[in-house]
């Protein structure tokens, strides 16, 4: 029995594990260090984006526009969707939290592939709902037949991460369409496309296209990855008004700062230049994947800004070996490591360890 003088917490917190961010590299010998553990864009801000953020910072004594009106209008113009179908938040993960808060509670179920984005089980558990994790296929892809079988009358939401974090493969349009055809219309399907700009697969699903056709589809995207605004935390959701309206009701007031809004708007204005940087990262991704496969690694097809190495029980040892070279990667103990495509110098240090590991 809990003593009367002790604070009591919700039972669902008992099994919630804290989110683990990518660790920064550590080295004491004076040589450069590199962080490949957080899927950050290695390029510095473009001058115009930096100038917009700097100008906005001069108004830090004022609250930001809670409605994010100018940013929503810019996104509306960019995607050809009404403002009523858009919501913004402190990263796409915040929008996911708000959505689950609005849709599920104890007794409900949320279905998603596993392993996938590690925030999913945390976000679900905090609502009191139950996670239904469906194992990936042998080639690290979503198993839609198994996900279909996992849907019950208690299922309220299905999460589809494409490309999948941390393994990298993308969901193809035909397989998701076939899945949507059998998902009950009252089950919301969230298409999480945080890495959409890095995709080069021609048969890829486009969540925005599906949202236009399906009232039970919601799309999540972010400015953190391709646009290089990870430090400002701004993401957006595209969905039908009733879904977006529920998200907005659960959002924290003034969550997206004025600086973040200004930087996001400026980024949309120079999108072509920013996406040239994405093209360069895609080329570097191909180089890294090619080198890993030449060294004997079985690397899943990555359509993101990272690669996945399945290592099982050797995961932590491998991460420590890379760390010894001044490069941090993201270990998932017992499963594998996720390695961001960063500066070529960092990638080469990682590849050196990966080649030696296979000898």
UniProtKB/TrEMBL annotation:
N6-(pyridoxal phosphate)lysine: modified positions: 225
Record flagged with keyword Nucleotide-binding: no
Segments of this protein annotated with the region Disordered: 20-39
CDD domains: AAT_like (cd00609)
Residue ranges occupied by any Aminotransferase class I/classII large domain in the UniProt entry: 35-344
Function statement: Aminotransferase that catalyzes the conversion of aromatic amino acids and 2-oxoglutarate into corresponding aromatic oxo acids and L-glutamate.
Protein name: Aromatic amino acid aminotransferase
Organism: Kribbella rubisoli
Gene from which the chain derives: pat
